[in-house]
Amino acid sequence: MSKKREWTLNIIGTFIVLLFLFPVYWMIITAFKTQSEIFQSPPTLWPKDFRIQSFIQIFQDNVWQYFLNSLAISGLATILVLILAVPSAYGLARFNVRGKKMMILLFLVTQMLPATVVLTPLFIVFDQFSLLNSYWGPVLSCATLGVPFSVLILRTFFIGIPRELEEAAKIDGCGRFKAFIQVIIPVSLPSIVVCGAISFFFSWGDLIFSMTFNRNQDLWPLTAGIYNAIGRYGIEWNTLMAFATISVLPVIIIFILLQKHLVKGLVSGSVK
Description:
2 domains; 13 helices; MetI-like fold; single chain; mainly alpha
């Protein structure tokens, strides 16, 4: 590749990254602007009067409770997804299970269903089992949609792992379960991290499940807290953007910390 072409591609890539990151930047700086400056024309790219009152206000409104609720729901849903999806995907990849093609087809169908389709059936089931107004309603709902996606992703990766690795582990005295834990799991860790991260992000951004299955606002996550703030603050966009900034920061931090695993897991299937 010539140096000129390399520079051109770098410039194009930088422009695309900045284009996608600009809404995030605009959200953050809006949180530090005054209400009058937000609607100023032409708009300012940096706050003239840098203020943090909007952040102080949302912390006074118990934003930490919303944050902890989001963390509990997303964490539990992610753990549940991985516990169910990893062995299920391995079983579908390694064993000739009767009806395997039908199972995979059903998993694909669930990915095409919008969340609103399953709201009423889930509400009836959770009501029968007294799971409403608790963390378990949103947790199980997010896991219901996260497990099929993770199974489809991990099954493809497990198929690409050579069987000779397990056979070598069996020669060394490992049973199938021990070989799965000590050999397959470490090899497939990048893909497992990808599925866990996607499940966490999906659960973190959930709104409809949490508001449908929890009437108690003390159990609402950050997304529902933002929805509640819209009605409370009206057109106070700096406060709303401060709320949105707080909700986005954990996702950004997790992505930065796990970016090596995420990139490796996303591209690993293409090099098998």
